[in-house]
Amino acid sequence: xxxxxxxxxxxAAYALYSTLLAFKMFVVTFLxxxxxxxxxxxxxxxDAKMNNKAKxxxxxxxxxxxxxxxxNDLENIPIFWIVGLLYVLTQPQAIIAVNLFRVFFVARxxxxxxxxxxxxxxxxxxLSWFAGVGVTIYMALQVILHFA
Amino acid sequence: xxxxxxxxxxxAAYALYSTLLAFKMFVVTFLxxxxxxxxxxxxxxxDAKMNNKAKxxxxxxxxxxxxxxxxNDLENIPIFWIVGLLYVLTQPQAIIAVNLFRVFFVARxxxxxxxxxxxxxxxxxxLSWFAGVGVTIYMALQVILHFA
Amino acid sequence: xxxxxxxxxxxAAYALYSTLLAFKMFVVTFLxxxxxxxxxxxxxxxDAKMNNKAKxxxxxxxxxxxxxxxxNDLENIPIFWIVGLLYVLTQPQAIIAVNLFRVFFVARxxxxxxxxxxxxxxxxxxLSWFAGVGVTIYMALQVILHFA
Lengths: 148, 148, 148
Known about the structure:
Number of helices of chain A: 5
Low-confidence stretches of chain A: none
CATH architecture of the domain at 20-25 and 61-147 in chain A: Up-down Bundle
Distance between the termini of chain A: 21 Å
Strand order of the largest sheet of chain A: 1-2
CATH topology of the domain at 20-25 and 61-147 in chain A: Four Helix Bundle (Hemerythrin (Met), subunit A)
Oligomer: homotrimer
Strand content of chain A: under 5%
Structural class of chain A: mainly alpha
Radius of gyration of chain A: 19 Å
Shape of chain A: elongated
Order of helices and strands of chain A: HEHEHHH
CATH superfamily of the domain at 20-25 and 61-147 in chain A: Membrane associated eicosanoid/glutathione metabolism-like domain
């Protein structure tokens, strides 16, 4: 079984994009930290103690926006990791699978961008979210057809 | 090694129920969206701009309830995905493993139902939560016994 | 392919620490429940109905602190699960890989301890968080070098 090696282009692409998604999530963590330090607004008193001007606050709209982007990642990306891995094991055609992984990655990167970097009017965020969910649901149906 | 193929009934059941759990999580996303559009209450100003009557609000009890159900999914289902996969690799008896996956899936579906669809008095939600955690802890102990 | 068996010390360590991290996350769930019952403060009306003195409240600082620790787990531990699994498949040297998994586990256990058990001044939490992220980023880079 060579399915889980770099000799399988589908698995190599899955491994690459899954890991790039992890980096993308760390970028959101960094954006939250950047907003917190810029505004000197923290969630815990021990963080605010690092600086005289800092305060504890939980409703700053710019920070909450980044946190919502992060939560949306948690709601979507781990599902991609597991469903994508199972999809690799259905032995799909490489050209379809690799492009699905690419679309998912680009969709999630755009979702973060229009939600938390440069805020864009809807339906920008809705479309990027749907593109990711569409890829996931397609892969999930293939997994069920293969294994059920 | 044929462990990760559909010829292994344990892995086939794992793949099926893991994917059904992903669909179950998308149902919760849909329930949140349904509540938001029904009540015209959104989390971001760019969403509320889609409709004159819409407003931004973060404490609507019906919406927050669905979001708590979703967060509880995030706290429990990814743990099932990884611990379940490792458990498959311990080569458990098929009849036990397949039924554990089924119980976990049904428990999480009931958890969502009594939390966010038809609200039921406790201990309905507590019991469905414990059933899922019980399955996970049993599998986790088997994984540690096998690999440690 | 014997990579995903207990004969591979790297995978055996991955399976062990991944599962211990699942238990660590359940400890945080238990800490939340303990705080809620001690203070008789719950998130849903059907929970508060179990006791006359109980009430619904969403801003108790001790409960919110444990919930932030839990959310931080969700932001970091599933990333470890997937990136760690892919890292195992790059066939790293056992002595390096096993120690990375250990450092990640200890870092996350300390993160929970200084955040939600005995609150410690910064940079205690920041350092434990960075140790975990450092391990993850190192593994992620190895995965990309191997599979890209």
